[in-house]
Amino acid sequence: MAVKVSSKYQVVIPESVREQLGLRPGTQVDVIAKGGVAYLVPIPSLDRLKEDLQGKISHKGLRDKRERKI
Fold it and tell me: Which backbone phi and psi does 16 adopt, to 5 degrees?
């Protein structure tokens, strides 16, 4: 899908791509240039990471800070 770069070097991300990547206003993205290709990589917020990991991490078996060797 082709988009045009404006005179201010801005591009509009097509709606279908925004939906696939889960982009919302205010979402930060990392722009990576590699081999002549620009990649947009969404940077999830801490709240989003916590939400995604909720119930997937078990504290069972973790040692208390007092038990750790220094």
Answer: -65, -35
Q: What is the pLDDT of residues 12-47, one digit of tens each?
A: 999 999 999 889 999 999 999 999 999 999 988 888
From CA 53, how far away is CA 37, in angstroms rounded? 31
Cα gap 5→27, rounded to integer Å: 20
**Overall pTM > 0.70:** no
Q: Does a structural domain hold residue 45?
A: yes
C-beta separation of 11 from 1 below 8 A? no
Task: State the Rg of the chain over Cα.
Answer: 19
Residue 6 included in any domain: no
